[in-house]
Amino acid sequence: MDITKHINPDHYLETEQGRLFTPERSAAAWELAYRDLDKALSAGSPATKLYVVVGVQAAGKSSWIQQNAAALGGDAVFFDAALPKTVHRERAIQIARSHGVPVVCIWLKADLQTALWRNTQRRADHQVPEQAIRSVFAMFEPPSEQEGFAVVHIDDTEPAPSGPWGRASSRPSGSRPAGDCGLASLRDGVGRRRPLGYG
Fold it and tell me: For residues 19 and 124, is the Cβ–Cβ distance under 8 A?
C-alpha cells in the first residue's frame, strides 16, 4: 500500500540503526504524524475515509492494516496508534472533520497476555517496555461513536499460544480472521464526505 496512507508515529522514530525512542523524539514524531495525516486527507478524493486503528501495543494494528488495506480500497487512509483514551483520539478525529472525511474506528481488542506475548516476538528495537503495555491496557477506554466515529468496529485477535505467558492456543468466542470482519460494510456502508462539524 501507499506508505503515505499508513500513518504511525512510530515510523518517524526509525533511524539507520533501528527505532530510537526518546521523549523528545516521540513528541516530534507525533507532530509529524498529525501533519502528514492532514496532508493525506487534504489530498483525498470525495470517497476518502480515515480508519483510526487503535488498541494496546502489540495488539496487531499494523498487521491488520497490511492484511486489509487492499480490501478497503485506495481511498482508505490509516492512522495507526494505541490511542487508549478518548482524549487521545480527539485530534485525529478533528483533523478528519476539518476535511469533511468520515472516520471509522478499528479497535484491535487483544487481551493483555496476548499483547505481552506478541511484544516478545518483535525485533528488539520495536519491543515496548512491559510496564508501558500494562499501563495502556489499564487506562484503555473503549471507543464509541459519540466521539465522532461514523462506525466503531471491534476485532478480537488471536490469543497467544501456550508458552511463557501461560496461554492456551485457542480462538476466543466472537473473534474472527481478518478476512471475515465485514470489510465491505466498512468500505461501502459509511457515508462519503460529511459536512464540517460532523459528529
Answer: no
Residue with cell 506508505: 3
The angle, 0 to 180 degrees and rounded to 10, between the axes of the packed helices 130-139 and 112-121 is: 150
What distance in Å separates the CA atoms of residue 58 and residue 130, rounded to the nearest whole number?
11
Helices and strands (DSSP H and E) totals, the chain:
6, 7
Inter-residue contact 186 to 151 (CB < 8 Å): yes
Contacts of 26 (CB under 8 A, 6+ apart): 9, 13
Measured distance CA(46)–CA(34) in Å, rounded? 20
HSE at residue 20, side-chain half, CA atoms within 13 A, is 8
Contact 80, 18 (CB under 8 A): no
| pTM of the predicted structure, to 2 decimals | 0.84
- Grid coordinates belonging to 138: 489499564
| 124-171 pLDDT, tens digit each | 999 999 999 999 999 999 999 999 999 999 998 665 555 554 444 333
Q: Output the DSSP codes for 91-140.
A: HHHHHHHHTT--EEEEEEE--HHHHHHHHHHS-GGG---HHHHHHHHHH-
Contact 40, 32 (CB under 8 A): no
Q: How far apart are CA 130 and CA 192, in angstroms?
A: 40
Give how far the C-alpha of residue 41 lies from the chain's centroid of Cα atoms, to the nearest Å.
16
- What span, in angstroms and rounded, lies between the C-alpha atoms of 180 and 182? 6
